[in-house]
C-alpha cells in the first residue's frame, strides 16, 4: 500500500546529509517505526513523478544486507523516502576511534557490505555509487545493511549538480574522468575502492584523507589520485585483513577484484567459517553506542565550557 504524510507521526531527527534531513517517523496505523528522508529538489511535477516511479524498483531490493524500502511520495518540491529504521545508526558514528573495531567484527561488517553490493549488482543490475560509512546502517540486532544506492537516474542527475563534499570516497579513476562523464564511467570497481576506503575509515575512526592536512580540496584529490593508498593501522590487524584492503585500494581499477573474488578472499572466508553466532556483533554495537553517547556528552560539555569562556 501507499504511504502518505498524513499517516506519519514525526519523531526525532536522525541526521542531516548534503541533500536533506532524515527523521524518525511512526506509521500510525501499523505502528511501524521508519526513517524518512526529505530531499528538496527544484523540479517540476512530472520530473518528481518520474523519480517516484524510478524508486519503485526498490521494492524488489529485498536482501538481509539492504535497508528495506517502504515507499516514497512528494509534496511540493520535496521527495520523501521511507525506509527501515536502523536503531544503531550509521557506521561513521559507531567507529569512535582508532582500532575500536575488533578484526572479527570488521570482517563481519565487510562481508555484509560485499554481499549487499553483489546482490544489487547481480539481482538488480544496480551499481551503488555512494559507498561510504554514513550509508552503512546498523541495528541493535547486529545487522549491517546498505542504503542510498543509485536507482533513479533523474534523482542522481538532480543531486549531481550540488557539491561533492570535502570527504571524497570517489575512486582515482572517477576523480580523473569526472569532467568528461560523471555517471557513464562508473563501474563496480569504483565501488570496490570506496569499500576499501570505508574499511580503513572504520579502523581509524576518521576519514583517511583528512581535509585539515591539505591546503585545499584540489590538493586532497591530488593525493587520492597520485599518492599511495591508505592502509589498515599496523600491528593491530592481521596481514589477511591488510591484504584484503590493499586489494580493494588498487589504484588501477582493472586490478581490483570483483565481488565474487572478494567473497573468496581469506579475510571473508574466515568470517563465513565463524558462522552466524560466531561474532559478538550485538556486544560490539552496544559498546559502540555507549562510547558514542559518552563522546557526544564530552563534546556537549566542551562546547558549554567554551560558550561560558566567551560570555
Ligand atoms: P550524504 O548527504 O553525503 O549522502 P549522509 O549519508 O550522511 O551524507 P543522509 O543520507 O541524508 O546523509 O543521512 C543523514 C544521516 O541520517 C546518516 O548519516 C545516518 O546517520 C542517518 N540515517 C539515514 N538513514 C537512516 C536509517 N534508515 N535509520 C537510521 N538512521 C539513518
Ligand atoms: Mg546517506
UniProtKB/TrEMBL annotation:
Binding annotation for ATP: 37
Superkingdom of the organism of origin: Eukaryota
Domain spans labelled Protein kinase: 8-268
Biased composition (Basic and acidic residues): 293-303
Family (UniProt): Belongs to the protein kinase superfamily. STE Ser/Thr protein kinase family. MAP kinase kinase subfamily.
Name of the protein in question: mitogen-activated protein kinase kinase
Species of provenance: Pseudozyma flocculosa
Source taxonomy: Eukaryota, Fungi, Dikarya, Basidiomycota, Ustilaginomycotina
Amino acid at each position: 500500500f501507499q504511504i502518505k504524510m498524513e499517516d506519519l507521526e514525526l519523531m526525532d531527527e536522525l541526521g542531516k546529509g548534503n541533500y536533506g534531513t532524515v527523521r524518525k517517523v511512526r506509521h500510525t496505523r501499523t505502528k511501524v517505526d521508519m526513517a524518512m528522508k526529505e530531499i528538496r529538489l527544484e523540479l517540476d511535477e512530472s520530473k518528481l513523478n518520474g523519480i517516484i516511479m524510478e524508486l519503485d524498483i526498490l521494492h524488489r531490493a529485498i536482501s538481509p544486507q539492504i535497508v528495506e524500502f517502504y515507499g516514497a511520495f512528494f509534496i511540493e518540491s520535496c521527495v520523501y523516502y521511507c525506509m527501515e529504521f536502523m536503531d544503531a545508526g550509521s557506521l561513521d558514528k559507531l567507529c569512535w576511534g582508532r582500532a575500536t573495531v575488533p578484526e572479527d567484527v570488521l570482517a563481519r561488517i565487510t562481508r555484509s557490505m560485499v554481499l549487499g553490493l553483489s546482490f544489487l549488482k547481480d539481482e538488480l543490475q544496480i551499481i551503488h555509487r555512494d559507498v561510504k560509512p554514513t550509508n552503512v546502517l546498523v541495528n541493535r540486532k547486529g545487522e549491517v545493511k546498505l542504503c542510498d544506492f543509485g536507482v533513479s537516474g533523474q534523482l542522481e542527475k538532480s543531486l549531481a549538480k550540488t557539491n561533492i563534499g570535502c570527504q571524497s570516497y570517489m575512486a582515482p579513476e572517477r576523480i580523473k574522468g569526472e569532467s568528461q562523464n560523471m555517471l557513464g564511467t562508473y563501474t563496480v570497481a569504483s565501488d570496490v575502492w570506496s569499500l576499501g576506503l570505508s574499511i580503513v575509515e572504520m579502523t581509524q575512526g576518521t576519514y583517511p584523507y583528512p581535509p585539515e592536512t591539505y591546503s585545499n580540496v584540489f590538493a586532497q584529490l591530488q593525493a587520492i589520485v597520485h599518492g599511495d593508498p591508505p592502509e589498515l593501522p599496523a600491528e593491530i590487524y592481521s596481514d589477511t585483513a591488510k591484504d584484503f584492503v590493499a586489494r580493494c585500494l588498487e589504484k588501477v581499477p582493472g586490478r581490483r577484484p570483483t565481488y565474487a573474488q572478494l567473497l573468496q578472499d581469506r579475510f571473508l572466508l574466515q568470517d563465513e567459517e565463524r558462522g552466524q553466532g560466531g561474532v559478538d556483533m550485538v556486544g560490539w554495537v552496544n559498546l559502540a553506542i555507549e562510547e558514542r553517547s559518552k563522546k557526544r556528552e564530552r563534546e556537549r560539555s566542551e562546547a558549554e565550557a567554551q560558550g561560558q569562556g566567551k560570555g
